[in-house]
Automatic annotation (TrEMBL):
Gene3D superfamilies assigned to the protein according to its UniProt record, in alphabetical order: 3.30.1330.30, 3.40.1280.10
Native organism taxonomy: Bacteria, Bacillati, Actinomycetota, Actinomycetes, Micromonosporales
Organism, scientific name: Actinocatenispora comari
Keyword flag Transmembrane helix: no
Listed name of the protein: RNA methyltransferase
Keywords (A to Z) from UniProt: Methyltransferase, Transferase
CDD domains xref list: SpoU-like_rRNA-MTase
The family this protein is said to belong to: Belongs to the class IV-like SAM-binding methyltransferase superfamily. RNA methyltransferase TrmH family.
GO molecular function: RNA binding; RNA methyltransferase activity
GO biological process terms held by the UniProt record: methylation; RNA processing
Length: 290
């Protein structure tokens, strides 16, 4: 039994009031009421604890997981986070995966307003419009983080960024960059343009080719990228509101790229154009993607 101040010898069940309150955060309405969400697994918990502000309110873990991830538990306790041992069944009730890894953190909302983002004069902003799949949304959030984007906007018609699958798919990136939650899509575009960003809509039938624009140096300016659903893309109204409608060239026989792949191509095109030549890389992955 791991002993911690205020929790010595206590193992909480799925009926413990704190566990019940945390479990309610699996529902969006309760998340919004409490302005709290759940982050599941050691990767997400580690990234949440690494934030230079009190992002984590409470950490739940099974006895086995708290022992296995003792270093994380130490970081949490040093930060004043309440750490609670729970039964396997209680942990399962907090997780929304089939094989949970034994840790779930209650985290504070991190979203900011669009005005606050634009006041910082961002150079790369991502707008997700009508994205309903949380896995896709979380993967694009992770890609935006990797490409050095300043913010990701989840418009009113997109999935909740604090959806459990979205948080997991972001692999901790939800804790790294500004996230804007909500906003009517066309109004968001107008706000980006008013702030001096060049707004680009991705479109399979776009009039302009991504590579040709990149060769012309078009992406060196502050840019806002609009991404729509894989099935239907962006609405005609939203696409028309952008400054440019750009297609990612398909050189082989594939019909198209999926959302995450297209976003990666577009965002790294901007990242490469905006980085000073010869700038040192903060980190990199090896050939196997580690």
């Amino acid at each position: 039994m791991i002993e911690r101040p205020g929790d010595v010898g206590t193992v909480h069940t799925e009926r413990t009031p704190r566990v019940v309150r945390a479990r309610a955060l699996l529902r969006r309405s309760r998340r919004d009421e409490a302005r709290r969400f759940l982050a599941e697994g050691p990767q997400a918990v580690s990234e949440a604890l690494a934030v230079g502000e009190p992002a984590v309110e409470e950490l739940f873990g099974t006895e086995e997981a708290l022992s296995r991830y003792a270093a994380l538990v130490e970081v949490a306790t040093d930060a004043g986070v309440r750490v609670s041992t729970v039964t396997d069944r209680a942990l399962d009730s907090l997780a929304d995966t089939r094989t949970p890894q034994g840790l779930v953190a209650v985290c504070r909302y991190r979203d900011v307003g669009l005005d606050a983002v634009l006041a910082r004069r961002p150079r790369l902003v991502v707008v997700l419009a009508g994205i309903a799949d949380p896995g896709n949304a979380g993967t694009v959030l992770r890609t935006a983080d990797a490409a050095g984007a300043d913010a990701v906007v989840f418009t009113d018609d997109s999935v909740d960024v604090y959806n459990g699958k979205c948080v997991r798919s972001s692999a901790g990136s939800v804790f790294h960059l500004d996230v804007v939650r909500g906003g009517e899509p066309v109004a968001v575009v107008e706000a980006l343009r008013a702030a001096g960003l060049w707004v680009v809509a991705t479109d399979l039938r776009g009039a302009q080719d991504l590579d040709e624009l990149a060769d012309a140096g078009a992406f060196a300016v502050p840019t806002g990228w609009l991404f729509g659903t894989e099935a239907h893309g962006l609405s005609a109204e939203l696409s028309a509101a952008a400054d440019a409608r750009v297609r990612v060239p398909i050189h082989g026989r594939a019909e198209s790229l999926n959302l995450a792949a297209a976003a990666a191509v577009c965002l790294y095109t901007s990242a490469r154009a905006q980085r000073p030549r010869g700038a040192a890389e903060p980190s990199s992955t090896d050939a196997e993607g580690r």
